[in-house]
């Protein structure tokens, strides 16, 4: 795993010497992603500079050093990720005349591009990747991102420079960085707790969407085509929407046993490919279906015990360490376990703005970082079980949403709207009714946070189409533009679904929405930043694109059965682990953020949400935010999630304003340029 960065200075605003200083500053900001080596390339005549920070995993010798030039000298690449089928591609390319100096997958990628062309080569890659490719002959710069969005890639303009990088902090090291906060993108943070591609927190900067590539030519670089226009030039080489539609149109007709056999074969290959490493390798293990399956298939292909890692919490309702321990004992792994205290978790909070680099507010970011830190003490690579829920229908919310849909089918639209208005107007009355009912039933079936549930139900009654109801279910704030000043929320896949009528099952529509939004925007961003913060490479075999394509051809009866998701994944797992160790309710991977904001984090939150501060910064409606905070502190409404969204932006804003000035001043001094302060 690595970090990449670079720029195209088509106007030659900087000398070659200054350009070298800039690209080194950019890659220095990514040292955590690649502590083992760094490298830089410049095409001074064109004004192009590429930079790389290396975490040496495959071929740690100088033969894997980047930037790397192709055998013909035509292409130069900087690459973040892994192409797992590089050995198979090497065997295919050798008879075609390709020669290789080392063992790295990067060299194979270059040979494949020279042999088949960029897009055809990328279609053959099995892996996670984000890379920049400079074509010295055609004078073009291509940016490419993997199919599911496992590896990040930002691009856009900083002054006259076209820039790109694995993280925003590399772009902020450019001497003339003065891009303002994109208030419209901030609305997305308050709705979903992440900012999904193609949007980014800064105006003029974009994220390259999963499964796409962008080719910049000299004319585009010289004319400074704006980021919004550039986004229209992005080309798709793999489309989740097309995969979903094709899968539904061409279902597999396999018996349960045959489908289980086929999936196990695919997963064994996906896991096996991701076990190659010239450094110690292990796996995250929560004891749930997905991580247990990955570990089981690793152990089935390993001659020695797999190293596994889990963390536990003393707080009731958040601890799954015992389940992980039981699975590890059954499989015979070398298990590492750490119980963390609330203090351990709270100590991570000040690190989050720098770690995540862009405002991000899924509070499971904290345990994910702690787990990554534990694993990094023993290994450099860790496999993760992410992706099973989105591909095989594992989230509990799918069942809840479908139940709501079925419950609303009989109600005319007018009656739904009247019920929504009644619930909204008389929320306190209905809350008191539910509170009374809660006192009469066992604790395990009591409705938690009834006021919040009433609000969600009212919103869903008033939301309209199925897709809009799911968007509301996945929203923190129903109308973020009311809270973010001078903003208009941009459209997304969730607000303007494009899947089409080909996929009629509401369950599958929700899975698709998560696959293209929540998975890359939240889950994979969280894993990438948390693991890379400690220089740990995380691999996700369930998100092998071949597994994704197979999953969409599997009929729903083999994904969801008996009121339980991930049915087919479970059948594979039961061949390796007894049902008794797996069949239990899912707890999730979170922290008691609501309680912390009333307790140990209260003073920190008070400072960030101080009314005068909010008014001076001018991003949020102060009265709304303070009322939300007051309601939470008083226990009237549980606002932990929505407050965390605001707090993570506030903390990020403070951190970036403090940290950015020094690097920009340093670069400006080195380059003889003036770097404006602030945003």
Please characterize this protein's 3D structure.
The protein has 679 residues and is α+β, with helices and mostly antiparallel strands. The chain folds into three domains: 2-238, Aminohydrolase, N-terminal nucleophile (Ntn) domain (Glutamine Phosphoribosylpyrophosphate, subunit 1, domain 1), CATH 3.60.20; 239-589, Rossmann fold (3-Layer(aba) Sandwich), CATH 3.40.50.620; 593-658, no CATH class. The chain is 46% helix and 14% strand. It is built from 29 helices and 17 strands. It has a six-stranded antiparallel β-sheet with strand order 2-3-1-9-8-10. Mean pLDDT is 90; it is low at 669-679.
Determine the fraction of residues in helical runs and give it as a percent range.
Answer: 40-55%
Number of domains: 3
Q: From the coordinates shown, what is the CATH architecture of the largest domain? A: 3-Layer(aba) Sandwich
Physical arrangement of strands within the biggest beta sheet? 2-3-1-9-8-10
Structural class: alpha+beta
Q: Write the CATH fold name of the largest domain.
A: Rossmann fold
Largest sheet: 6 strands, antiparallel
Unreliable stretches, pLDDT < 50, 5 or more residues?
669-679
Rg, rounded, reads: 25 Å
For the record, the CATH class of the largest domain is Alpha Beta
* Morphology call: globular
**Termini separation:** 31 Å
What's the tally of helices? 29
Number of extended strands: 17
Average of pLDDT? 90
In CATH, what is the homologous superfamily of the largest domain?
Answer: HUPs
Which range does the strand content fall in?
Answer: 5-15%
């Amino acid at each position: 795993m690595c970090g990449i960065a670079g720029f195209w200075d088509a106007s030659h605003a900087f000398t070659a010497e200054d350009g070298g200083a800039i690209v080194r500053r950019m890659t220095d900001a990514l040292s955590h992603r690649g502590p083992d080596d760094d490298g830089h390339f410049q095409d001074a005549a064109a004004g192009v500079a590429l930079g790389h920070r290396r975490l040496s995993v495959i071929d740690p010798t100088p033969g894997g050093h980047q930037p790397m030039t192709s055998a013909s000298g035509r292409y130069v690449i900087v690459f973040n990720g892994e192409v797992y089928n590089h050995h198979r591609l090497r065997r295919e390319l050798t008879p075609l005349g390709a020669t290789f100096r080392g063992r790295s997958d990067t060299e194979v990628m270059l040979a494949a591009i020279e042999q088949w062309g960029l897009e055809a080569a990328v279609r053959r890659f099995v892996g996670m990747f984000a890379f920049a490719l400079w074509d010295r002959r055609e004078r073009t710069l291509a940016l490419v991102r993997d199919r599911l969005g496992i590896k990040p890639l930002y691009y856009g303009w900083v002054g006259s420079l076209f820039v790109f990088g694995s993280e925003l902090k590399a772009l902020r090291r450019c001497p003339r960085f003065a891009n303002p906060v994109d208030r419209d993108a901030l609305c997305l943070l308050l709705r979903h707790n992440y900012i999904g591609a193609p949007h980014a927190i800064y105006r003029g900067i974009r994220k390259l969407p999963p499964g796409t590539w962008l080719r910049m030519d000299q004319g585009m670089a010289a004319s400074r085509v704006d980021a919004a226009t550039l986004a229209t030039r992005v080309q798709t080489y793999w489309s989740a929407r097309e995969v979903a539609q094709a899968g539904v149109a061409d279902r597999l007709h396999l018996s349960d046993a045959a489908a289980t056999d086929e999936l196990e074969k695919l997963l064994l290959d996906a896991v096996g490919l991701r076990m190659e490493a010239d450094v110690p390798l292990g796996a995250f293990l929560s004891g749930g279906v997905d991580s247990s399956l990955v570990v089981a298939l690793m152990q089935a292909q390993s001659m020695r015990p797999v190293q596994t890692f889990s963390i536990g919490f003393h707080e009731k309702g958040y601890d799954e360490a015992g389940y992980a321990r039981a699975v590890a004992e059954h499989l015979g792994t070398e298990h590492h376990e750490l119980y963390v205290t609330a203090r351990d978790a709270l100590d991570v909070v000040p690190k989050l703005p720098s770690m995540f680099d862009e405002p991000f507010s899924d509070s499971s970011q904290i345990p994910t970082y702690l787990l990554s830190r534990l694993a990094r003490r023993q290994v450099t690579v860790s496999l993760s079980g992410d992706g099973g829920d989105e591909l095989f229908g594992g989230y509990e919310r799918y069942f809840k949403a479908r139940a709501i849909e079925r419950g609303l089918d009989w109600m005319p639209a007018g009656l739904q709207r009247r019920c929504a208005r009644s619930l909204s107007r008389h929320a306190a009355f209905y809350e008191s009714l539910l509170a009374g009912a809660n006192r009469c039933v066992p604790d395990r079936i009591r409705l938690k946070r009834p006021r919040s549930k009433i609000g969600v139900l009212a919103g869903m009654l008033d939301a309209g189409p199925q897709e809009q109801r799911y968007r509301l279910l996945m929203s923190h704030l129903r109308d973020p533009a009311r809270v973010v000043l001078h903003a208009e929320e941009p459209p997304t896949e969730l607000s303007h679904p494009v899947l089409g009528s080909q996929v009629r099952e509401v369950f599958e529509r929700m899975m698709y929405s998560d696959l293209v939004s929540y998975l890359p925007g939240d889950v994979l961003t969280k894993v990438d930043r948390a693991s890379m913060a400690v220089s740990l490479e995380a691999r996700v075999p369930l998100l092998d694109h071949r597994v994704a394509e197979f999953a969409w051809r599997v009929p729903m009866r083999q994904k969801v059965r008996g009121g339980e998701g991930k049915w087919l994944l479970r059948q594979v797992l039961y061949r390796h682990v007894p049902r008794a160790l797996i069949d239990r309710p899912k707890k999730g991977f979170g922290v008691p953020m609501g309680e912390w904001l009333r307790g140990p984090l209260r003073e920190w939150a008070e400072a960030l949400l101080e009314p005068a501060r909010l008014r001076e910064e001018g991003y949020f409606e102060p009265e709304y935010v303070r009322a939300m905070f007051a309601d939470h502190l008083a226990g009237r409404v549980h606002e932990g999630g929505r407050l965390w969204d605001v707090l993570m932006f506030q903390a990020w804003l403070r951190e970036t304003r403090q940290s950015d000035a020094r690097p920009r001043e340093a670069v400006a001094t080195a380059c003889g340029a003036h770097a404006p302060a602030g945003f």
